[in-house]
Amino acid sequence: MLRPYRLLAVVPHASSLMAFSLLGRLHMPALAMVLAFLVVDWTGSYAIGGVIGATVTTGQAIAGPLRGRAADRSSAPRLLVVTGLGSGLGMAAMVVVSRWVEPAQWWLMLPVALLTGLSHPPITQVGRAIWPRLTDGPAREAAFAVEATLQELLFVITPMLATFVVAAWGPVAAMLSCAAWAALGAAMFAASLLRAGLREAPGEGASGAGKTGSLFRVPGFTSLLLFFALLVGGLIAVDLVLVGWARERGAPELAGLLAMIWAVGSLAGGLVSGGFAARPRLWLRVLLAALGLAALVPALPPITDPGSPWLVGAILLVGGTAIAPTLAACNGRLADLTPVERRSEAFGWMASATTLGGALAAPLAGWMLDISGPAAAAAAAAGLALLGFGFVISHSARASRALPGPEQTSLT
């Protein structure tokens, strides 16, 4: 079972590339929370905080494929340093605006927020696109599993760290910390790429066929993005379900505890799945993830009122074991679909799909919570994941026929 990890361990520079790729993203899960604290402290309005946060997210969604394409066609280390510095300066500028501009002119923050989002460094895209260049087979699948698993850990640890900094030193200090890490983390990952000899663009010396045309013409690419948007939307909806249910019970801290249990399940599942030498069956992992979300429905109000935290926690722990393996298989499938000189761009589109999924799922889950309660919102989350499963099944045959040899099995 440990053979894929042993194969990955002997890949030159694998450990440092993985570590600095993840460290470079350390501030990303905390940014939305810290920005909300900063804006609410400045204006006193959660609505304004949401608008400014959405503006940053919009910039990030636009930048995802653009920065990925730039990384495919130029030096990724240089791009990381420039965009990391721009992102850090943008966050620092947002702090300056919040200190020097009257709350009534809060709209002056919007262009700064948009530029900050547009400067988002492509650490995630580049960090995933390098593995097919360095290794293949079980070692590559293990790399994707480790990356997806440890990213789950980031989403558990980073918000806790951000909350501590806000409580101890205030939102300005927390935002400046994010700004400093945006620049430093991108620079550290760039340095690790240089040490690994990944200075040049992956398309250097490749045929021109893959550099032209739209990735959306690649069979299966669009359906994979839609699936990923739906799956991530379902996961985000569950986060809102936990918050809503915990607030109804008068124990808001329960949401954080249950989210942590869910992440522990995902961590365990990711580490175990990464040890399998066989190619992953994406359809099976998606189905298991969707069933894990569906299992929450009968355990929540109004079906079960008030609902047992122990039962919900157990469902999340078991159901969470399919999350990281599904995300890892999705990353591997995307690497199979796209040519080497377009992979950073492809992962950039995936990042944008994630943003789209969250933007669609959040209001849907909120609406269901308002009209029918947590069980209905959990059903909506499961429905999104099952719809994604439908995309995988309906398009797997056509996408598989378009791929040569062993890659045909990567979707099914």
Defining traits:
0% strand, disordered C terminus, 412 residues
Description:
This protein has 412 residues and is an all-alpha fold. Helix content is 75%, strand content 0%. It has 17 helices and no strands. The longest helix has 33 residues. It is globular and about 55 Å long. The two termini are 22 Å apart. The C terminus is likely disordered.
Order of helices and strands: HHHHHHHHHHHHHHHHH
Please describe the biggest sheet, giving its number of strands, its sense, and whether it closes into a barrel. Answer: none
> Average pLDDT, to the nearest integer?
85
Number of helices: 17
Distance between the termini: 22 Å
Number of DSSP strand runs: 0
Helix percent reads over 70%
Q: What oligomeric state best describes the polypeptide chains here?
A: single chain
Beta content comes to: under 5%
Rg over alpha carbons: 21 Å
Shape: globular
